[in-house]
Amino acid sequence: MAETNAQRIHSLYVHVPFCAQKCGYCAFFSEAASGELISRYVAALVRELEMVADDLQPHTLFFGGGTPSLLNLRQWGQILKTLERTHGLGAGEFTVECNPATVSADKAKLLRDFGVNRISMGVQSLDDDLLDRLGRVHSRAMVFKSYDVLRGAGFENVNLDLMFAIPTQTMEIWRDTLNEAMAMQSEHLSSYEVIYEDDTALFTQLKAGQFAVNEDLACDMYEELVARATQGGFQQYEVANFARRQRAGAAAVPDRPPEDPLAGIPALACRHNVNYWRGGSFYGLGPSATGYVRGVRTKNWSNTQLYCEQLEKGRRAVESSEELSPLKRAGETAAFGLRMNAGWPFAEFQRVTEFDLRREWASEMSQLEERGWAVCDAHRFHLTHQGLRFADAAAELFLR
Ligand SMILES: C[S@@+](CC[C@H](N)C(=O)[O-])C[C@H]1O[C@@H](n2cnc3c(N)ncnc32)[C@H](O)[C@@H]1O
Ligand code: SF4
Q1: Distance between CA atoms of residues 126 and 161, nearest Å
Q2: Out of 73, 157, 250, 306, which residue is the most buried by the measure of CB atoms under 10 Å away?
Q3: pTM
Q4: Distance of CA 161 from the midpoint of ligand 1 (Å)
């Protein structure tokens, strides 16, 4: 593992479990809640932040959800002032997830003033009928408006989330959305195929035979995504993630040498997620959040009332914690890192896990190479374009 007991943890994820309304496909822990519960959550989160503050010196902060942008100015003020007081600000990358329906100029300014420097906006589609179909609370017009508000507030690093293989979405609609998204010139793009999660409205409709899944179309849409994003100046660095190598108008960032652990990862990649995929520690606060600190994985209660009760009693709201064996942990770390185009540099894998990838997983590596799913060079092992299409199956081979 990367951190010793003497080193503080450099990464923090905070889960905000509230949404204006639940989208039909979403299984993230979130609910439409009363103002009273939201205020109680904020007070509980402030306590949780205070509890971990001494062990935290964030280089990356990520507020996800749920819909962090649903919190009002007062609630954000409480959280940001707590971070300020506990020396939690000043991260190189501080991301907040936003729903286009809940962005305002005042909120954007407050976030920017406290050092938030990256926004991840849930766009999903730029087709109004599909947005409606998905149960989104915003229109396409709101996406463009909120994007302008964020740019106006000084955000120079914005991610757009898009979904594809949405029921009734045609290739033509997907191309139009991709073209319009490219024209927005964001710094980052995340795009996922719809996953039919248990206990969601979309899953119920699928099971009821209201529509069928077209796997071939989904594959073609993925190929279109990779091609279009690449033409649009993005570099794919993970199965579903694309980033620019430099900001618009800035000088080109020179490529890192092959022995650099960050070689092959574009400068505007999400550093928080790169830490996560590369097996780094992070605290996870808020209901349902998972954390991974010095080899111990924790999960908070996925129940906001219970979460608040625990913190009101002065206890962390951890439902379960698990310390994996070093080999099991290394296997998981290998699997996560292979989702990245750059794969695993051998030296970095050894530094993080204390295992030699080439020795411990030699037969799995040759199996993937023989299938044409992976390649190995002097410095690293990584999946090919074809391998990335089957990244989950490839990664599974490394689990112990
Ligand atoms: C927590 S949400 C993003 C922020 C905000 N809650 C929003 O939706 O505007 C993270 C992203 O995961 C993706 N996502 C959520 N559920 C999904 C599913 N079932 N299948 C595919 N992508 C999903 C969406 O693109 C979503 O924007
Ligand atoms: S996709 Fe985002 S806005 Fe929709 S329910 Fe999930 S977390 Fe909430």
Answers
A1: 11
A2: 157
A3: 0.96
A4: 7
Q: Which atom of ligand 1 is nearest to the CA of 26?
A: 16
Ligand 1 centroid vs 26 CA: distance in angstroms? 7
Given the DSSP bridges, would you call strands 118-124 and 158-164 parallel, antiparallel or unpaired? parallel
Q: How far is the CA of 121 from the centre of ligand 1 (A)?
A: 10
Cβ neighbours, 10 Å, residue 320: 10
Mutate to test the pocket of ligand 1, among 26, 62, 198, 225 (most ligand atoms within 8 A of CB): 26
CB atoms inside a 10 Å sphere around CB 222: 19
- Report how far ligand 2's centroid is from the alpha carbon of 67 (Å): 7
Which is nearest to 47 in space by CA: 72, 79, 8, 15? 79
Q: Whose CA is nearest to atom 6 of ligand 2?
A: 26
Sheet with 318-323: list strands edge to edge: 290-293, 296-300, 318-323
User: What is the full per-residue pLDDT of the chain (400 aa) written as tens digits?
Assistant: 456 667 899 999 999 999 999 999 999 999 998 899 999 999 999 999 999 999 999 999 999 999 999 999 999 999 999 999 998 899 999 999 999 999 999 999 999 999 999 999 999 999 999 999 999 999 999 999 999 999 999 999 999 999 999 999 999 999 999 999 999 999 999 999 999 999 999 999 999 999 999 999 999 999 999 999 999 999 999 999 999 999 888 888 888 888 888 999 999 999 999 999 999 999 999 999 999 999 999 999 999 999 999 999 999 999 999 999 999 999 999 999 999 999 999 999 999 999 999 999 999 999 999 999 999 999 999 999 999 999 999 999 999 8
Instruction: Spell out the residues 6+ positions from residue 223 whose beta carbon is closer than 8 angstroms to its own.
Output: none
Radius of gyration of the chain (CA): 21
* Residue 353 dihedral angles phi and psi, to the nearest 5°: -110, -15
Burial of 185 (0-12, 13-18, 19+ CB in 10 A): middle
Task: Give the residue among 271, 266, 183 at the shortest CA–CA distance from 231.
Answer: 183
Q: What number does the ligand 2 atom closest to the CA of 136 have?
A: 4
- Atom 7 (ligand 2) nearest CA: 66
- State whether the beta carbon of 25 lies less than 6 angstroms from ligand 1: yes
Q: Which residue among 30, 126, 163, 272 is best mutated to probe the pocket of ligand 1, counting the most ligand atoms within 8 A of its Cβ?
A: 163
Closest atom of ligand 2 to 27 CA is 6
Q: Which residues contact 246 (CB under 8 A, 6 or more apart)?
A: 252, 253, 267, 268
Q: Is residue 387 lining ligand 2, measured as CB closer than 6 Å? A: no
